[in-house]
Design brief:
alpha+beta, Alpha-D-Glucose-1,6-Bisphosphate, Chain A, domain 4
């Protein structure tokens, strides 16, 4: 069983595929991926809380995650195309199609994140600038965050699970 994020970019394809086992049930991992009060705590590859996290969780709804950096926040934004809770999310971001699949595996979740590029050259450029490595760090953060006991999460969030920023 994988305890690290694996990254695949097969020759002749336009996709980057990252896979990670998360030691938490699928519903909990899906919630951690889709609720701003959770995403803000694990998304940044550096492990810092986000400066802003906005999620309109519906097909056609937008999301924006802004990292907190002294030199100015870096933003990841897009639009949801498909939501199939708690199994699958498809979104557009910067002309790319992202797909996140949550596969139930007993008390764990196998998370598969696919980034579909317009071309193999675009995929290779993303790999060169470190997108896959940054995404892998983000998934590592999620794995650590999802291990928290749900009671600890509720307490850390001040007892509220649905607040938005």
């Amino acid at each position: 069983m994988a305890t690290e994020t694996t990254i695949r970019a097969e020759p002749g394809t336009r996709n980057i595929v990252l896979t990670r086992i998360i030691g938490a049930p699928r519903d909990q991992v899906y919630e951690a991926w889709t609720q701003p009060e959770h995403v803000t705590r694990w998304w940044d590859p550096a492990g810092k809380p986000l400066a802003a996290c906005v999620i309109d969780l519906r097909p056609g709804g937008a999301f924006q995650f802004v990292n907190d950096r002294p030199e100015g926040g870096e933003s990841f934004a897009g639009v949801y195309r498909e939501l199939s809770p708690p199994e699958r999310i498809v979104f557009n971001s910067n002309g790319l199609i992202g797909t996140v699949v949550f596969i139930e595996d007993g008390t764990q979740t196998r998370l598969v994140v696919s980034i579909e590029c317009k071309s193999e050259a675009e995929r290779d450029q993303l790999l060169k600038i470190g997108v896959a490595v940054g995404t892998a760090r983000t998934l590592d953060n999620l794995a650590g965050y999802a291990l928290w006991d749900p009671r600890q999460l509720s307490e850390a969030l001040g007892g509220s699970r649905r607040e938005t920023r």
